[in-house]
UniProtKB/TrEMBL annotation:
Coiled coil: none annotated. Belongs to the ABC transporter superfamily. ABCA family. CPR flippase (TC 3.A.1.211) subfamily. Its main location: membrane. The keyword tRNA-binding does not apply. It is a multi-pass membrane protein. The chain crosses the membrane at residues 36-54, 348-371, 391-419, 431-453, 460-481, 509-526, 538-557. It comes from the Eukaryota. Pfam families: ABC2_membrane_3, ABC_tran, ABCA12_C. This is OLC1v1012658C1. Keywords: ATP-binding, Membrane, Nucleotide-binding, Transmembrane, Transmembrane helix. It comes from Oldenlandia corymbosa var. corymbosa. Residues 620-857 form the ABC transporter domain. InterPro entries: AAA+_ATPase, ABC2_TM, ABC_transporter-like_ATP-bd, ABC_transporter-like_CS, ABCA, P-loop_NTPase. GO terms for molecular function: ABC-type transporter activity; ATP binding; ATP hydrolysis activity; lipid transporter activity.
Amino acid sequence: MADSSNGPASFSTQANALLRKNVTFQKRNIRSNLRLVIFPFLLCLVLNLIQVLVNRELDKPSFRCGCTCVDTDGDGKCEEKCGIEYSSMDQAPFCPIPSPPEWPPLLQIPAPQYRAVQADFIPFEDLPSDSCKKTNSCPVTILLTGSNLTLGQSLSASMIPSSLTLNASDIFYSMANNVLGSASKPDVSNFIEPAFSSDLPLYYLQEHCASNSSFSASLPIGPASFEQEISCIRGLNLWRNSSSEINDELYKGYRKGNSQGAINEIVAAYDFLNTDTTRFNVSIWYNSTYKNDSGNTPFSSTRVPRSVNLASNAYLQFLLGPGSKILFEFVKEMPKPETRIRLDFSSLLGPLFFTWVILQLFPVVLTSLVYEKQKRLRIMMKMHGLGDGPYWMISYSYFLLLSTVYMVVFVTFGSLIGLNFFKLNDYSIQAAFYFIYINLQISAAFLVAASFSNVKTATVVGYVIVFGTGLLGGFLFQFFLQDSSFPRVWIIVMELFPGFSLYRGLYEFAQYAFAGTYMGTVGMRWKDLSDGNNGMKEVLIIMSIEWLVVLFVAFYSDQVVSTGRSPIFFIRKKTHSSFRKPSLERQGSKVFVQMERSDVLQEREKVEQLLLESSNHQAIICDNLKKVYPGRDGNPEKFAVRGLSLALPRGECFGMLGPNGAGKTSFINMMTGLIKPSSGTAYVGGLDIRNQMSSIYTSMGVCPQHDLLWETLTGREHLLFYGRLKNLKGAALTQAVEDSLKSVNLFHGGVADKQAGKYSGGMKRRLSVAISLIGNPQVVYMDEPSTGLDPASRSSLWNVVKRAKQHTAIILTTHSMEEAEHLCDRLGIFVDGSLQCIGNPKELRARYGGSYVFTMTTSMDHEAEVENLVRQLSPSAIKTYQISGTQKFELPKNEVKIADVFQAVEKAKSRFTVHAWGVADTTLEDVFIKVARGAQAFNVLS
Ligand SMILES: *[C@@H]1O[C@H](CO)[C@@H](O)[C@H](O)[C@H]1NC(C)=O
Ligand SMILES: *[C@@H]1O[C@H](CO)[C@@H](O)[C@H](O)[C@H]1NC(C)=O
Ligand SMILES: *[C@@H]1O[C@H](CO)[C@@H](O)[C@H](O)[C@H]1NC(C)=O
Ligand SMILES: *[C@@H]1O[C@H](CO)[C@@H](O)[C@H](O)[C@H]1NC(C)=O
Ligand SMILES: *[C@@H]1O[C@H](CO)[C@@H](O)[C@H](O)[C@H]1NC(C)=O
C-alpha cells in the first residue's frame, strides 16, 4: 500500500479528481443528457419546418404579382405576361409599379348616416335637420372661424363651387376643377386610390344640388378603367365665433366620443386666424383616424392635401378675383419595384422557444448541486479532503463549460439550418449575451441550491420555472414590452429576474432579425445598442451586475451553511496556535469529575499530561470536549457530550458503545468537523479541530452510518476519486484501488465496475469502508460499519479493519458486542453524554462481570421454587430478567461454585420439569447493559 505521508493534495490534484468524477457522472446520465441535447434540436427543426411551410404559402400566386397567359398575336399560342394589369386586387400590391397612375385628389367625406345634423348636444341651429338621414341626402359640413368675419365669409364663399365644370370629351382630366370626395376607407398603399374601385359613389361638392345630378363615368386610372357613379353632394360652410367652439363641436360629434351615441362628423374645419390681405395664416382640422373596423389604422394622407388646397385657392381668389385658380390636378405615389412578403418565424416564436432552450440548463445545474447536497456527498467529499476552493472552481467551470458547449452547438445548429434569428444578428453580441447569461444562470443555481434539500423538489421547481418563465415572458412580459405606455422602470424591475432578462434579450434579437428579414437588411449590430428602443444594453448591464452579486452571495451563503461558520466569518481572525495549554476553567465539569469512575478519570489525567508535552505521538486527543444544544421551545438545554477526554495512539481501534441517543453521533460529528464543539477541543495529529479542520481532512477517513455514494458511479470510480483526493497518483493510485477492492471483496465478478446504485446494502457498506480507508489516513471514523452485512462479508470486513488498524487510529461505534470485542483494543461505554467506563474488553468483563449468569426455564407455576433454589445457592443473587417461566439471575462468583449449581439443578429436575437451563460467564453485552442501566439510574436519581 502507498505511504500515507503523501501530504495534502494540491489544488490541481483536487480539481483534477473532481473534474474526472464529474465527467464520468455526466457520461452515465446519458438519457437526461440526450434529452437535454435533443430538445433544442427539435425546437429548431420545428421552427424550420414552420418556416418552410410559411415560405411555401407565401410563394403561392396570391402572395406575388399575378401573371396570365395571353394570346397577343392571335396565333393560338399564349404568352405568359406578368404585371399589375394581369393581377387580381390581392396580387396587385406585390407587383412592380415603374410608373404609377395618377388621379384627382379627393376629400374624405363622412358616410351619410354620420354626417353632422342638428342635435341636442350641439347648440347650433344652422346645421341641417336630421330628417335628411332618412333619404341619405344630408349635406356635409365644413366649419370656419377667424379673427375677421367679413374676410372669413368671403373666403368661405369661394371654397365650394357653385356649378359643375366638366369637359365632356375628357371627363377624367376635368375632374380636378371640381371638389371630389369619397366616403370609402383609405388604404396603406395608395397605388390605386381605393375610392375608384369602391362600390361607394364619388361625390362632387356643390353649394346646391339639382335633383338628378348623378351621372356615371368611366375613369381611366393607369392601365385599368373604372366605371364609377358620381353624385352631387351639398357642401355647407358654417361660421363659428371661435376655434374653441369648433373644437368642442368636433369633439362632441366624434363617433365614439359622446354618451348619447349620436355622431356628427365634419369634413374639415378651418381657422383663418389673423389672415388679412397681406398675410395668409390658417390652421386646418383634419381627421386622420378613418380606419377599418379590424383595427388597423391606414392614414389617409392623400385625402388631406385637398382640404389645404381649398383654403389656398379661396385666398387666391379673394386677392385676385374669381378668375385665378391654384389648380391641384393630380396625385400619385412614387414608383416601386416588385415586393415579396417574407416572415421570419424564428423571430416570432424564437423568444419563447429559445427561452425554454437556454433556461432548461438551470434545472440541470440545480439538480446536480442538490443531488450532492441531498446525498450529503458534498460533506463526504469535504471530509476526505476536498477544499471549498477547488469544489467551487471546478463545479463552476464545469457547468460553465457544459453550458458553453451546449450554447455553441445550439447557435451553430440554428445557423446551419438557416434560422435568421441567429444568422442576421451580430455573432459577437450573441456570444456576449449568452455568455453573461449562462454565468448568471449558474450562479443563480448555486444560490438557489442552498434552499433545496431534495432532488425531486428541485427538479419540479426547476422545470416549473423554465416553462413558467417562457409562458409568462411570451404572454405577459412581451405585452408590457410592446405597450409603450407601460412604465420603463417596471420593465427594468421585471428584468431583475434572470428569466425575463433572457427573454428580453432574445426578444430584441428577434425584433432585429424580423425587421432585417422583412426589409432584406441585417440584424442587430453593436452600434444598435445605443438605440433608445433597444433593450439589449440595459439587459447586458443588469445581467453583468447581477451575475457578480449573485455569485458573491451564493459563495458567501454556501460558506455559512456548509461550514457552519458564523455569518461574519471573514471578520474574525483565525488563530493558528496548533497546541494550546489545557484550559483551566473547568468549574462546570466538577460534578462529573467527582462521579467519574477511576478509569475515566485516569484517561482524563493522561490527556492532561499529554497536552503538556510538546511532542507526542497520539493520533487523537480529545480535551474535555463538550456539546450543548441550546434549549428550544421552552425545553432545557440538551447536553449531548458532557466533557469527553480521550487519547488514542495510531494503531489502536477504540470502540464506542452506547445506547441510541447517548451522544455518539454528536461526538463523531464534532470530530469530523460537521458541528463545532461548545467548549473543549480535540487535536488530530496535532491539529486543532476548531480551526484546522481543512488540514485534518487530508488525513482523515470517514465511513458514515448511511452510505453516501453516487448512484451512477461504479465502486472503482468512487475509490479512484477519493484516492485522488488523498493525493494518490498514477500506478500507486491504481494499486491502492485494486488492493482496496480486493480487501472488501468487491474486486471479482465485475462488481467493481457495476454502478453503486445497483449494489446490495452489504456491498455499499463495504464500499463505504473501503472509501474511508483509501490513501491510508491517520484517523478513521466508522459509524456502525458492519450493519446489514452477512456473516461472511462481516468477517472479511473485520479483517480489512484489523489490517488497516496497524497504521491508523480508528474510532468505531457499533451495537454489535461481538464486533467490539473482535476489533477494538479499547472500549468506552458512552451513556448520556459521558464515558461511563473505558478499558479493553477483558478488563471490562472482569471489572463489571464477577458473576455467573444463571438461566432456567420452567412452567410458570414453578417460578417461585426456582427463585428459592437460587437463594439457597447464593443469598445475594440478583434476578435480572423474568418472563413467562424464564428467569435470569446473577450469581456472584465468590459465593458460588459451579459444581453446586449442577447439583442443585439435578435436585430441581427431580421435583419439577425443567425445560431448559444454563449457566454462563458474563458477556460484554451484560457489561454493557449493566453500565448503561447504572448510569441511567444515576441520572434518574440526580
Ligand atoms: C376685415 O377684412 C376686410 C376686407 O377683407 C377689411 O376691409 C377689414 O378692414 C378687416 N377688418 C379688420 C378689423 O381687420
Ligand atoms: C376639352 O378637352 C379637350 C381634350 O383634352 C380639349 O381639346 C378641349 O379644348 C377642352 N375644352 C375646353 C372647353 O376646355
Ligand atoms: C357669435 O357672435 C355673433 C356676433 O357677435 C352673435 O350674434 C352670436 O350670438 C354668437 N354666437 C354664439 C353661438 O355665441
Ligand atoms: C374621425 O374619424 C373617425 C374614424 O372614422 C370617426 O369615428 C370620427 O367620428 C371622426 N371624427 C369627426 C370629428 O368626424
Ligand atoms: C398665425 O397665427 C398664429 C395664431 O394666432 C400666430 O401665433 C402667428 O404669429 C400667426 N402668424 C403670422 C405670420 O402672423
